């Protein structure tokens, strides 16, 4: 499962906002690593791209698709392959298990540079509960006119909030993903814009709270939805907590990658489910 929407915002802010003198010291063949692994999930969220100068107002980095990427756990070694032309790499086998407490080493070779990093898979989220397991969508009073329809839809959306709650005794960071598990869309209301009829997916910002709320009434399709709450590892927590820097004191952001920029981190989760059904 690709969580790139969440990570690219933070990494764009951090790793390309170093002071100019630091950037001038970076070799032309330096690269940026965005590497994330998830307990119990396939390894497919390893991305490599070039760095770019601070003077560039836009992200001018380019994907690197020809690196040698290796993951290691104990005596096991897993060679990753390019997933296409976007700089992503994945492990094609099914024998690379990512479990709580596992220590993974990452090695990337490209243009004479060998970059390395290490991460530990954190404990999973515990105690995840949803305030509702079913949300019923009312039938629209189409014969009563537009105003009546709008009133029913508005009331439904206002009353459709679902709370996701979990244990967080140490104020750790977590983030939540809500996504449709249905392969086909079954729109809840008529005249839904065609482009919106895709498998729904929502990604929250990291939080150190023990609850997040979302509106199920903003979903577009009936069916089963999965709520997955991820426990964030320390490397990524440090990156997130360093997201705001005083412009008079710009320091290079936290990085656990040697000989390159970026971060290698692991996540662990717990999931719950709810249904969006007809009333």
Task: Describe what you observe in this structure.
The protein is mainly β. It has 2 domains: 4-124 and 231-267, no CATH class; 129-230 and 271-278, Immunoglobulin-like, CATH 2.60.40. It contains 4 helices and 16 strands. The protein has helices spanning 4-14, 20-24, 146-158, 234-241, and strands at residues 31-38, 45-50, 68-73, 76-82, 88-90, 103-110, 113-120, 129-130, 134-137, 161-165, 174-180, 201-203, 211-215, 223-232, 257-258, 261-278. The chain is elongated. The two termini are 32 Å apart.
Which terms summarize this structure?
279 residues, mainly beta, Immunoglobulin-like, 2 domains, 13-stranded mixed beta sheet, three-stranded antiparallel beta sheet, 13% helix, elongated
- pLDDT under 50 segments (min length 5)? 4-27, 192-197, 245-251
**Approximate shape:** elongated
Instruction: Report the strand count.
Output: 16
The CA-CA distance between the termini, in Å, is 32 Å
Supply the number of helical segments: 4
β-strand percent reads: 35-45%
From the alpha carbons, calculate the radius of gyration and give it in angstroms: 22 Å
Give the mean pLDDT: 81
Structure class = mainly beta
Instruction: Give a short account of the largest sheet.
Output: 13 strands, mixed
For the record, the count of structural domains works out to 2
Series of secondary-structure elements, N-terminal to C-terminal? HHEEEEEEEEEHEEEEEHEE
The helical percent reads: 10-25%
């Amino acid at each position: 499962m690709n969580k790139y929407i969440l990570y690219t915002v933070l990494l764009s802010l951090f790793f390309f906002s170093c002071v100019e003198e630091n950037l001038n010291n970076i070799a032309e063949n330096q690269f940026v690593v965005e590497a994330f692994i998830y307990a119990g999930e396939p390894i497919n969220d390893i991305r490599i791209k070039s760095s770019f100068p601070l003077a560039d107002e836009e992200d001018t980095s380019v994907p690197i698709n020809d690196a040698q990427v290796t993951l290691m756990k104990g005596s096991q070694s897993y060679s990753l392959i390019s997933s296409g032309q976007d700089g992503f790499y994945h492990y094609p086998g099914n024998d690379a298990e990512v479990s709580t407490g596992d220590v993974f080493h990452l090695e990337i070779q490209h243009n004479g540079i060998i970059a390395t990093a290490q991460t530990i898979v954190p404990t999973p989220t515990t105690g995840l509960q949803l305030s509702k397991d079913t949300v019923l969508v009312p039938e629209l009073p189409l014969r009563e006119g537009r105003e009546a329809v709008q009133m029913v839809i508005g009331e439904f959306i206002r009353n459709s909030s679902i709370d996701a709650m979990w244990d967080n005794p140490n104020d750790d960071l977590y983030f939540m993903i809500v996504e449709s598990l249905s392969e086909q869309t079954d729109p809840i209301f008529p005249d839904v814009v065609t482009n919106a009829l895709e498998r729904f997916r929502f990604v929250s910002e990291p939080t150190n709270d023990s609850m997040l709320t979302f509106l199920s009434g903003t979903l577009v399709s009936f069916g089963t939805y999965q709520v997955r709450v991820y426990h964030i590892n320390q490397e990524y927590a440090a990156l997130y907590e360093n997201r705001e820097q005083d412009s008079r004191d710009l320091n290079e952001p936290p990085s656990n990658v040697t000989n390159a920029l970026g971060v290698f981190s692991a996540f662990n989760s717990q999931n719950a489910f709810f249904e969006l059904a007809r009333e």
